[in-house]
Write a structure and sequence with these properties.
With 293 residues, the protein is an alpha/beta fold. The protein is built from 9 helices and 11 strands.
């Protein structure tokens, strides 16, 4: 726990089931269990959170495996939709630690994540203020294109062209418990209409969408619009830690020669391969809310 702040709970989204494009390509049951190097993707993420020194408890949403032993505290099943998985994870997080001020949402497909980068983001995010001078209630990391390409050369990323520069978004979000009730329905609306430009315009506003598509939007304008939609202060946090945004969403990323961080020293065991998934997973390290049929 950071001095002066309440407990922090991390919610790790293990990704879709075997229908996920990457999981399907390698024959894994979910994205978190896709092997990279000698270990599944999710193991790198869970180890980085555990080693950061700022996360008090971790909730894993979705498939688990014996290789994750000792790296999380609670396991809940994933939902049919993204918003369902978020609701299950957030509910478990706040039930486990009622005194938690904040929740750190993380996807399980960022294997280059380091404990140091997690700590830097959490410390900076908790110190950010909103436009009204109060504390920011949702903080999202953004990485400039130059930093992303310098640290992960050759990796293809999606960048948003703004007047402030070209940015790619991170795979972590820090939210306060107070913003959760407004966050879930907003995510549901945006995700449900992600392929409907007219519906998205109705949500974010046609002016904001037009400026964004024309590359004329500014970070401050987008922060203001998201804050208005949430009824709470939302901020983007520029960071040079490109590992926060280096997710694996393409089979070509699995051939990346950028070495995973050395955060798993002492965690032995055989290499993770698709053959591992044919056997039932070992018992998880922490309590589980998963129910048998």
């Amino acid at each position: 726990m950071l001095e002066g702040r309440g407990p922090l709970v991390a919610v790790v989204l293990a990704g879709g089931g075997p229908g996920d494009r990457l999981a399907r390509a390698v024959g894994a049951p979910s994205k978190a269990l896709v092997p990279y190097g000698a270990r599944p993707l999710g193991e790198y993420v869970l180890a980085a959170l555990r080693g950061s020194g700022v996360v008090d408890r971790t909730v894993l949403v979705g498939e688990t495996h014996g290789r994750f032993a000792g790296l999380y505290d609670v396991n809940v099943p994933s939902g049919a939709r993204l918003v369902d998985s978020l609701a299950l994870g957030l509910g478990a997080a706040l039930a486990q630690v009622p005194a938690a001020d904040d929740v750190l949402l993380v996807t399980a497909d960022v294997p280059w994540l380091t404990p140091e980068a997690v700590k830097r983001f959490v410390v900076a995010a908790r110190a950010m203020e909103g436009a009204d001078g109060g504390r920011a209630q949702l903080v999202y990391p953004v990485v400039e294109r130059a930093d992303a390409e310098a640290q992960f050369p050759g990796q293809r990323r999606t960048y948003a062209g703004l007047e402030d520069g070209h940015f790619t978004g991170g795979n972590l979000v820090l939210v306060t418990r107070g913003v959760v009730p407004a966050l879930l329905p907003l995510i549901d609306r945006v995700f449900s209409n992600r392929k409907n430009p007219l519906a998205l315009a109705g949500i974010v506003g046609p002016g904001t969408l037009a400026r964004f598509l024309l590359g004329r939007a500014r970070v401050a304008q987008l922060e203001a619009r998201v804050s208005a939609l949430l009824g709470a202060a939302a901020r983007a946090l520029p960071t040079r830690d490109a590992c926060l945004a280096a997710d694996v969403d393409d089979p070509r990323h699995l051939a990346d020669k950028h070495a995973p961080p050395a955060t798993l020293a002492g965690r032995g065991g055989p290499p993770a391969t698709p053959a591992d998934w044919r056997d039932p997973p070992a018992a998880p390290a922490g309590p589980t809310l998963r129910r048998d049929p």
